[in-house]
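Troubleshooting: if your tokenizer reports a length mismatch, compare your output against this known-good record of 128 residues.
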Amino acid sequence: MTATQCLSRLNARRRELGMSIAALAQRSGVSKATLQRMLSGTQKSADLEHVVAIAAALGMTIDLTPQASSSEFRRAAAAEKASKLVGMVQGTSALEGQAITSPESRRDLVDLAVETLLGGSRRRLWTD
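Known-good structure output:
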């Protein structure tokens, strides 16, 4: 969810409850001017403390539930990085006339790179 979507949900909840900006400001401890900027859509980002305070004042929670398990997320990140790495190797090889031409060969290289990234240092996986 983007910051804009999050702020939009907060504003929708405020309207659903029939709560004024002034009442929300008083309940959340966030200034009325800040609330107006945040909830009007003119402010594209928001301070996390403000978002948490507003959500609590509206009877909402901030749910940080993972969309995938740690191992699934790491594997997806490794696959993305491996694909980029193989693409760079493939581009360099093409310049040297040794391009990887078959999709199967490329897939095998990506699979090998994924396993290497997952089996190695975690830092290697998360750095560019």
